[in-house]
Task: inverse folding
């Protein structure tokens, strides 16, 4: 259709028609919806004619919404869904791993040398040498002193993503290829795999070993813990004993209670005992590197469902390299969509030739050669981008030889291309993506409809006091009451003596006195309460009691109430528009809207293509 010369496409109509159908309990016919849709678009056209869409307030709100919804189109949602499921599957499993770490190199070449050394260590293990001995000799992992490179079972969420991903994707009995993280270069061997046992909740009592304790010093601690254990077994309260005796400063004050914990979060001996106990069971004293413990197991729980774990998983994804994977995948999709091509090899050859001709990489080369270069570094959607754009990106003062300079300049192409092509995609999204276009148009038109309806109908009715009055007088028979109404002021007093004193003052001041209520407030203050009321019989306890002889409301502070003389009356039917203003205003708004719609049909031409309308496909 065309409304006021503006095209309305089948896709937009079909989108809104089907959305409306899904929200309706009773389905609306296509013809009925068509009439409502035309009126809706006519009102939008009127809002555009009033230039509401050009106001600063409208633009600010619309652009804010646009920026918010465009985010959903800037990522490949299937990537995040895959990452969530992968992470959850890892949560359900533990892997037993060995680890050797070498330092992180200063550059790619140094990392390659370090990984070659790890590859040699891998071959030594495969030929029969001890992982434990090799780890102690070469690994810079601080924990190697205590574990000899053996971590035992690990759980998901404990290590950087790449490290964890590699550990979980290496087959049992195999050693992974050397790899890098931000912490170093790594080698992992996977020894076994099992289902994750979930988490446990425990309380414990700890007696610490003295520093550098020998066997005799440990024996003294053992004697003390045994006496505590005996007291607990004989009925002493575990939590009170923990508060009084435990030397764990973090948990003693809370009765020895620790937070829920899972695999590899505690020292191995503590974890083993905690998982082995039944709920409510208390362990015998046992030793760890810290001292002697007694553990009481309170509860346990299994791995949460995917729905329960999803929030935690999403938070973890946003904190590591996975946070950009969905957008990176979208960028690659967009580059393919627009036929992105880059001539890295040809450009590198060109750069080396120009650098050699110039003599060296310096600010003069950037200004006089690169900034003027027309060499096409990449193309997309029939656009060619010349090398000159890189002049404002590279550092002209970098100290580089010609080979390194050529590599450095070439390395700037992809980040720049990604930024340019992605912005091009965003700018053209409204033309290229029907779903985005329909959603954006729906919100825009909804904003316009609200503002123009507010001006023409809602505020129009409220502000038109003469129109409301005339409408009420012309339609008085529509507005009737089933029960009598009271309008007036009810005065409540804290006691009967105060009420009598008030009535005496009213007699002196006179019922018609304009300053009566002010004078009473001034004299009696909080001893009385005056309320202006407008209620039907049955709507308010106080009105029902004072006016309609109903039971007294339950109140202690103001038990005596009466209608302020000369300030209240009961009537059976509304007398003026103020008595039924809400109903009248609503009805008058309907009148104004019908009148407005009639004016719109006369003002703006509507042309409907019936052949295209027949193509609408209901869901």
Result:
């Amino acid at each position: 259709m065309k409304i006021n010369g503006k095209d309305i496409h089948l896709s937009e109509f079909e989108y809104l028609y089907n959305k409306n159908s899904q929200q309706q309990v009773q389905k609306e016919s296509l013809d009925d919806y068509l009439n409502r849709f035309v009126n809706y678009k006519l009102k939008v056209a009127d809002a555009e004619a009033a230039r509401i869409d050009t106001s600063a307030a409208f633009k600010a709100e619309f652009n804010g919404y646009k920026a918010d919804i465009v985010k959903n189109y800037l990522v490949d949602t299937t990537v995040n869904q895959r990452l969530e499921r992968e992470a959850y599957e890892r949560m359900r499993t533990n892997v037993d791993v060995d680890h050797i770490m070498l330092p992180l190199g200063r550059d790619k070449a140094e990392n390659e040398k370090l990984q070659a050394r790890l590859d040699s260590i891998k071959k030594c293990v495969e030929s029969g040498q001890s992982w434990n001995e090799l780890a102690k000799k070469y690994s810079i992992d601080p924990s190697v002193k205590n574990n000899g490179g053996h971590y035992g079972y690990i759980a998901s969420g404990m290590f950087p993503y790449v490290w964890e991903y590699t550990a979980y994707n290496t087959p049992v009995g195999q050693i992974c290829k050397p790899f890098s993280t931000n912490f170093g270069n790594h080698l992992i061997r996977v020894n076994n795999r099992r289902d994750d046992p979930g988490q446990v909740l425990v309380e414990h009592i700890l007696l610490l070993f003295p520093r550098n304790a020998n066997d005799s010093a440990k024996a003294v601690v053992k004697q003390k813990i045994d006496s505590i254990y005996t007291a607990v077994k004989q009925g002493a309260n575990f939590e009170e004993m923990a508060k009084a005796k435990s030397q764990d400063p973090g948990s003693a004050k809370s009765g020895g209670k620790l937070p829920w914990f899972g695999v590899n979060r505690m020292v191995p001996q503590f974890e083993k005992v905690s998982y082995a106990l039944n709920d409510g069971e208390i362990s015998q004293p046992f030793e760890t590197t810290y001292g002697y413990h007694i553990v009481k197991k309170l509860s346990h729980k299994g791995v949460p469902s995917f729905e329960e774990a999803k929030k935690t998983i999403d938070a973890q994804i946003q904190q590591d390299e996975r946070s950009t994977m969905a957008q990176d995948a979208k960028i690659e999709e967009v580059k393919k969509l627009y036929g992105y091509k880059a001539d890295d090899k040809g450009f590198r050859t060109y750069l080396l030739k120009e650098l050699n001709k110039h003599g060296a990489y310096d600010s003069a080369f950037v200004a006089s050669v690169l900034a003027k270069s027309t060499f096409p570094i990449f193309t997309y959607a029939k656009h060619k981008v010349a090398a000159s754009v890189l002049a404002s990106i590279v550092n002209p003062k970098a100290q580089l030889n010609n080979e390194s300079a050529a590599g450095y300049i070439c390395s700037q192409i992809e980040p720049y291309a990604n930024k340019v092509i992605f912005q091009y995609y965003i700018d053209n999204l409204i033309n290229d993506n029907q779903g985005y276009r329909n959603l954006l148009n729906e919100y825009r038109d909804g904003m316009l409809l609200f503002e123009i309806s507010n001006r023409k109908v809602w505020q129009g009715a409220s502000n038109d006091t003469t129109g409301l009055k005339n409408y009420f007088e012309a339609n008085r028979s529509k507005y009737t009451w089933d029960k009598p109404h009271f309008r007036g002021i009810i005065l409540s007093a804290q006691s009967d003596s105060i009420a009598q004193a008030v009535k005496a003052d009213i007699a002196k001041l006179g019922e018609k006195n304009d300053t009566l209520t002010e004078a009473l407030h001034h004299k009696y203050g909080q001893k009385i309460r005056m309320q202006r009321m407008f209620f039907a019989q049955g709507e308010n306890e106080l009105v029902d009691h004072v006016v309609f002889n109903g039971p007294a409301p339950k109140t202690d502070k103001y038990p005596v109430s009466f209608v302020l003389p000369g300030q209240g009356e009961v009537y059976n039917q509304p007398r003026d528009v103020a008595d039924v203003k809400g109903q009248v205003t609503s009805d008058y708004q309907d009148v104004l809207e019908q009148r407005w719609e009639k004016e719109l049909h006369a003002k703006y031409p509507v042309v409907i293509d019936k052949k295209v309308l027949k193509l609408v496909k209901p869901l």
Summary: Residues 434-463 form the longest helix (30 residues).
